[in-house]
Amino acid sequence: MRLLTIIGGKPVRADKNKTINSANRLREAPTGGLFGADRPGQPTPPPSDIILSDKLSAAAHDNSGHRARLRKRLLEGGAEALADHEILEYLLTTAIPRRDTKPLARGLLARFGSLAGVFNADPDALIRHPGMGETSAAAIRIVTLSASRFARSEAVIAPTLNSWNALITYLTIDMAHLTKERVRVLFLDTKNRLIRDDHVAEGSLDEAAIHPREIIRRALDLGAASLILVHNHPSGSPEPSRADIQITQKVAEAGRLLGIEVHDHVIIGREGHVSMRAKGLL
């Protein structure tokens, strides 16, 4: 049996068992496709797919150039070299290397309100955000963890009361954007160096949440000479409530009875911090 194939506009007969070269097969009609003879039942890839592939390649090239420019500004510029969305955008490229991350960065800022809001967002909320996943959420969380560890190391290398600004920076990074109220106690030695940073309660600050006698007993167990109470206000305002003042005074009184000084009670909020000692409340 012979097949009729069109070559150069002229009909040419070919044996069925003879191979038609690939150049001719690409011109076969109607069953020949752009990628050679199609199998029965398989659609021919349309030219639009090739065009789309070319566009994607071009977009990837453009993203590469844009990221190179961001990298150059980051390495050569100062603290303000990148805008907030560009910091997030560049960070996310480490987790999502083949995608334009600018829309995602802007979306995260819109949802969480600020760069600090994104870095302190709940991990599950980050993972569930459209376009995010565990890898990209982890990239954001590692920055938060690194910043907290760095600030903590700066706060503890010197006596706490002599490095007050470093301590406040550490506490602000660690607590200002928490969505739940958290109480912690910093136990200090006779030279005001940090012995222990204990998380003692989570929730509203009242006697049901923290027990003054237990805090002082913990100080004695650690050999601490003094302590600093710390908690956050999720509302944002660091102004002390009546309950804050009352519980602070009870802890201070219990400490005086056993020779443990309460240096201060610091309240952290997004709007700043308040020292009860500085306000004359202790």
In terms of topology, how is this protein built?
Layout: E1 2-7, E2 10-15, H1 22-25, E3 32-33, E4 36-37, H2 47-76, H3 84-93, H4 102-112, H5 115-119, H6 123-128, H7 134-156, H8 164-175, E5 182-188, E6 194-202, H9 212-222, E7 226-232, H10 242-257, E8 261-269, E9 272-275
Parallel strand pairs: 7-8
Antiparallel strand pairs: 1-2, 3-4, 5-6, 5-7, 8-9
Helix pairs in contact: 3-4, 7-8, 9-10
What is the number of independent domains?
Answer: 3
**Biggest sheet: strands side by side, in what order?**
6-5-7-8-9
Low-pLDDT regions: 1-9, 14-42, 48-61
Q: Rg, please?
A: 33 Å
User: Which homologous superfamily in CATH is the superfamily of the largest domain?
Assistant: Cytidine Deaminase, domain 2
The topology string of helices and strands comes to EEHEEHHHHHHHEEHEHEE
Query: So what's the overall shape?
Result: elongated
Major beta sheet, specifics?
5 strands, mixed
CATH topology of the largest domain: Cytidine Deaminase, domain 2
Structural class by SSE content: alpha+beta
CATH architecture title of the largest domain: 3-Layer(aba) Sandwich
Short description:
The protein has 282 residues and is of the alpha+beta class. It has helices at residues 22-25, 47-76, 84-93, 102-112, 115-119, 123-128, 134-156, 164-175, 212-222, 242-257; strands at 2-7, 10-15, 32-33, 36-37, 182-188, 194-202, 226-232, 261-269, 272-275.
